Amino acid sequence: MSTTQRFVLWIAILGSFVAFLDGTIVNVALPAISDELGGGLRTQQWVVDAYLITLGALILVAGSVSDAYGRVLVLRIGLIGFGVASLAIAAAPTAEFLIVARAVQGAAGAFLVPSSLALITSNFSGGAQGRAIGIWTAMTTSAMIVGPLIGGLLVDLASWRLAFLINVFPIGATLVLLARGGFRDTRQPDASIDWLGAALCTLGLGGMVYALIEQPHLGWSSPAIWVPLLLGAVLFALFILRQRRVRSPILPLDLFRVRNFSAGNIATTFIYGALALNGMVVVVYLQEGAGLSATLAGLASLPTTILLILFSSRVGTLSGRWGPRLFMTVGPITMGAGALLLLTVSTDFSYWWQVLPSMVVLGAGLALTVAPLTSAILGSIGPERSGIASAVNNAVARVAGLIAIALLATIVGGALDLDGFHRAAIVTAALMIAGGITSFLGIRNPETAADTPPA
């Protein structure tokens, strides 16, 4: 890498690190949040999904803004907004205030990851791009170690509120690098942003998610369920129709005519829906069902994270050389097998024999999947549209997680007891395997993949 490329890579890593860090902290803190502010499983679902609703909808706008007005500007806006929202979350007096602050944080987070990945794809190519994405994956995923460790300790020894304040440090470091780097954005003078489309997307997703979360408590016959569900579906359908006609769509449907982009995003739906479901269920059950502390529950997935960090860069390089199809097929199916190992969890709980094997197998599959998946999707689209391509893929991943969490009460049968935990493991495995099959049938290796020299 050149000096500029290294600088770009570190900015991309730190910018995305914030969003990844917050995600791991939230899962660890959920039981403590519901204990203090009330609401049980419903509050836990809304704390996660309020963030994902605005993130999933506005990440598309952020991608368009990134391409139109510059990656650095968008990244700076996201960092500042994320920091302010984190302070509000730490000071939240009620569950309702916390949920609103999480929605604001999701809106700010929408500006982080797409701009970070777009910086990489516009400054790297070929095998070097695969390796850079692998390094980005490994380094940002280190948040999965730092988050549960620091967040769990703060939850156990002080307060869950303090856990959200650690976002300030990577935000500050990234803003300093952006200020000292002297980067200049390339802007399109005739750019326009489809804010109406963004509103339709946000309200549509919000209505449907509200119905899915509240349905187990009110029932499908309640107008408070079927009205927002129907209205949300109509608004989201209008959003899709609008994207076919508006001059500057935030969701360019023509991207999906590219085979690897469309197949990769279908696989993303299955894989990241499963990851969101598994991530929340395991951490919450280990605290509420198995009786572990927040720190130990957060560190339960440490083997998965370590394997991802150790091997993502190498797998990214191999994917750039051999093509992503094999990795995207074997990786999710391996993760599905790891999820099924959680069926060994019983009332006579043992982390070492019942959870650890699953975490190891999940980690191996995740390391095989993440970098090739990202490379396959972004590599199929030209660098001039890398911002919106990254945003669409991230939106798909977040909306998949949004729906999975919204369906949590239905999946586990209303309570996250041992039987519910087993049901969630089966659904996770089914989604992972579906992602692997989709990749095998839909992904095609680029013709030049075998000829690209390793970075």
Architecture overview:
By secondary structure, the chain is an all-alpha fold. The chain folds into two domains: 3-181 and 250-451, MFS general substrate transporter like domains (Growth Hormone, Chain: A); 194-249. 79% of the residues lie in helices and 0% in strands. Helix 2 packs parallel to helix 4 and helix 15 packs antiparallel against helix 19 (418-442). The protein is globular, with a radius of gyration of 21 Å. It starts with a helix and ends in a 13-residue tail after the last helix. The mean pLDDT is 84.
Helical content class: over 70%
Span between termini: 9 Å
CATH class of the largest domain: Mainly Alpha
Largest sheet: none
Count of strand segments:
0
The arrangement of helices and strands along the chain is: HHHHHHHHHHHHHHHHHHH
Q: Structural class of the secondary elements?
A: mainly alpha
CATH superfamily of the largest domain: MFS general substrate transporter like domains
Number of helices: 19
Structurally, the number of domains stands at 2
